[in-house]
Specification:
The protein contains four helices and three strands. It is mainly alpha-helical. It has a three-stranded parallel β-sheet with strand order 1-2-3, with no helix packed on it. The longest helix is centred in the middle third of the chain and has 22 residues.
């Protein structure tokens, strides 16, 4: 824009495709500005001063051609030597969609996280199966794990005479029942007659 104070007259025009950049090519021809263009086999060469034959349809090819052109300009200026390779990679001249770049970075991060998860050792490792003796069936659970008892002497093994049970007469006439109404006296009499039987292994001295 010539109205702006920072306007500078262009001295050279570099374009990628003469077909798609036909408008600046036409305007540059009015001001006699030299034009250098990357031309394909079907590109128009009207108003083109220097055409560089190449594939100007592929993004990788266009980036490589701009890398060649930038390297040659630096060599002509004497900034770099022709005997030494240029350290700048051609990848910097390739156009990449920001969304695709973010998608690739996200996929790489997910792949790295998945690989880290797989490589990480599990926090808990189940121990080996232990033998709890379940193969041998236990029939007497009271004697399980207890030492075998010694046989009792003949004198101790003598059976204790059982106390006679209290007689009880059942009749339909409740008033004619012979059972005593003193329950305390009825329960105390058999206890006095029966000897103290040490059947639980405890002491009877309380």
């Amino acid at each position: 824009n010539q109205i702006q104070t920072a306007f500078r007259e262009p001295r050279l025009l570099l374009i990628t495709d003469p077909r798609s950049d036909h408008q600046p090519v036409t305007e540059s021809s009015y001001a006699n500005v030299p034009i250098i263009a990357f031309a394909n086999i079907d590109s128009p060469t009207k108003f083109i001063d220097i055409s560089i034959p190449c594939n100007n349809k592929s993004t990788n090819s266009i980036g490589l051609m701009w890398w060649f052109l930038a390297r040659e300009v630096l060599r002509l200026r004497g900034s770099i030597s022709r005997d030494m390779p240029w350290e700048v990679m051609p990848d910097l001249f390739f156009y990449r969609d920001p969304e695709e770049v973010e998608k690739e970075e996200r996929e790489k991060a997910e792949a790295a996280a998945e690989a880290h998860t797989v490589a990480k050792a599990p926090d808990f490792v189940a121990p080996d199966k232990e033998d709890w003796g379940a193969d041998a069936a236990v029939t007497d659970w009271a004697a399980d794990g207890q030492p075998a008892a010694a046989p009792a002497p003949a004198a101790i093994a003598a059976p204790v005479a059982a106390a006679p049970a209290a007689a009880f007469q059942v009749t339909e006439d409740w008033a004619a029942q012979t059972e005593t109404s003193d329950w305390a006296a009825a329960s105390a009499a058999p206890a006095e007659q029966a000897p103290a039987a040490n059947t639980w292994g405890g002491s009877t001295q309380w």
